[in-house]
Each structure stands twice: as structure tokens, then as C-alpha cells.
Amino acid sequence: MSIVSGESILLDAEKILSHLKIGEGMRVGELGCGGRGHFVFPAVRLVGTKGRVYAVDILKACLTAIEHQATEEHWPHVMTVWSNLEIVGATKIPNGELDRATLINILFQVHDLSAIFTEARRLLKREGLLLVIDWSGASSPFGPSADRRIMPEKTIALAERVGFRSVEQFKAGPHHYGIIFQAC
User: Fold this and answer.
1) I want to staple 2 with a disulfide (CB 3.0 to 4.6 A). Which of 38, 59, 113, 128 is the partner?
2) Are the C-beta atoms of residues 66 and 44 closer than 8 Å to each other?
3) Given its phi and psi angles, is residue 34 left (phi above 0), alpha (psi -120 to 50 degrees) or beta?
């Protein structure tokens, strides 16, 4: 289970990642991973020792926390990457390297949404899958304000403009939507 703010269970990482059908040996990127590794470490168990999980974030402290946990848990195939995802081409991962990528709970924080989807598309192989999880429009006592939330319709439009097609939508949690996109 994923814990947000150290208290509330909001997102079940294993259940959510099952929508991506991550397999042994795949390369997965958690774009905007944060410091807890809620999706990094469940993903690394799915890719096995022949796969790789890239944990990407703009905050070095988050990456340091991921590195420490990966070392403690003996996951040498977790690779941390310091990058601003809003600068296309800045992420030090080769074009088309990833089989799967995630953008989880970060859209409301992003200034240039088009750039972040363009960067995700650059990193994914053709027909690779992108999982987007973000806050739904329903009001809640926590999370971003309603005016900062990016609704699913806008998310789909942004992704389609840069070479994705929506293949699945689901309720990711009581306050979150999920969308799977395929790179075209």
C-alpha cells in the first residue's frame, strides 16, 4: 500500500501497477518519484533482477532517500536520475529506453504540462505504456486546491497532442483517477 503524508492510505501501489502489466526484464521509469519510493519498490519487484527501474525527481533529497532504501533492500537495479521533467531532453535516460513510465500525483505541481508529456513520450518505446494518476475533481479535506487539479479530460487531450492514445481509465483510489496511455 502507498502512504501519503505518512498517515493516510490513499493509493494501493501493487493494485495500480497491475494495470501496466509490468514484466520481468522491463525498464520502468517513475517520473517524479518523490522520496518514499511507493511505486519504485513495488515496480522493482515486478521487473526482477534483469529489469531496471529509473527513479526520476528534481529534488536531490528525494533521490538520496531512494538510493538509501535501494541499498538497504539490495536493489542494485534501481537507478536514480536527477532531472527537471519540464525540460524536454534533460532526463539522462536514452530515447525509447522505457517499456513503462508513471506520472503519479505530480500534474498539479507542473507548470509546463505539455513538456512533461513530451518528455515521457521521448523516454518510452513505441507502444510503451504511460500511467498517469492524479487528484480527481471531487473535493477532499487534503490534496491540492480544486483550481490546481488537472481533470482527466485535459490530461487525455495533453497526452494525445504529443503522441499518446488513451487505452484505459480507472478509479485509482478514493480521491484519484488513473489513465493508461500507449505511445504511438
Assistant:
1) 38
2) no
3) left
Q: Report the alpha-carbon distance of residue 97 to residue 110 in Å, rounded.
A: 23
pLDDT for the residue 6:
40
pLDDT digits (tens, 9 = 90+) for 47-65: 999 999 999 999 999 999 9
Where do we find the cell 513510465?
Answer: 101
3-state secondary structure of 83: coil
pTM tops 0.85? yes
Task: Tell me the CATH architecture of domain 2-183.
Answer: 3-Layer(aba) Sandwich (3.40)
Q: Check residue 121 and report its DSSP letter.
A: H
Contact 40, 78 (CB under 8 A): yes
**Helix (H) or strand (E) run with residue 45 in it:** helix 40-47
pLDDT reported for residue 9: 67
Q: What single-letter amino acid sits at 173? A: G
Residues 82, 153: Cα–Cα separation, whole Å: 30
For the chain, which ranges sit under pLDDT 70? 1-9
In whole angstroms, give the CA distance from residue 65 to residue 142. 24
From residue 58, alpha-carbon distances to 31, 62, 84, 122, 164 in Å are 10, 8, 5, 18, 24
